[in-house]
Design goal:
The complex is a heterodimer of chains A (113) and B (112). Chain A has no helices and eleven strands. By secondary structure, chain A is an all-beta fold. In chain B, 0% of the residues lie in helices and 52% in strands. The termini of chain B are far apart. Classes of the chains: A mainly beta (113), B mainly beta (112).
Amino acid sequence: EPEVTQTPSHQVTQMGQEVILRCVPISNHLYFYWYRQILGQKVEFLVSFYNNEISEKSEIFDDQFSVERPDGSNFTLKIRSTKLEDSAMYFCASRGWGANVLTFGAGSRLTVL
Amino acid sequence: AQSVTQLDSHVSVSEGTPVLLRCNYSSSYSPSLFWYVQHPNKGLQLLLKYTSAATLVKGINGFEAEFKKSETSFHLTKPSAHMSDAAEYFCVVSPYGQNFVFGPGTRLSVLP
């Protein structure tokens, strides 16, 4: 069964450092998403992406965040200068044209020290 | 605006007894509704979905949910809990197929 792949599974970084989280969505999917889950809290929407541009973003997704689809397979989330409060599990998801179900990756745990 | 309420942050049942996880939603549009499950240190797995067809939806692992428009509810049930059902369960609403809004989650504990 096709799956969404995320790397790294866990990253530890120092405050102020840049982090890039990578996702390989399902190959024929067209819509891509990032969500985050701070430990013990709810899953929060960050951003959705379609046709090489952001289609929607939340208040959390400020100027420190950016997304990119650098090639035909990867979808990345960059945090320019990490803060302690960016520590969370980040989930990538994708869905196909006409489909209304998200398929999630296993997540990337980010720990900011 | 759309939102999801999961009335119980934690539900504890004995193995073999029924499970009821409650979800109420608010949406300006006719929504699609989902339940996702998250086992410890794992990703989010789709349990079942409602997309304007049958109001009683069957999912994986014996779970089912009933969409009740008059009550704006989409409660998740299972007749008999198994130890492996212990996990976090999220109700999700998608009002127009673009954004997907998560509820706060319900942690299900299954006692032997």
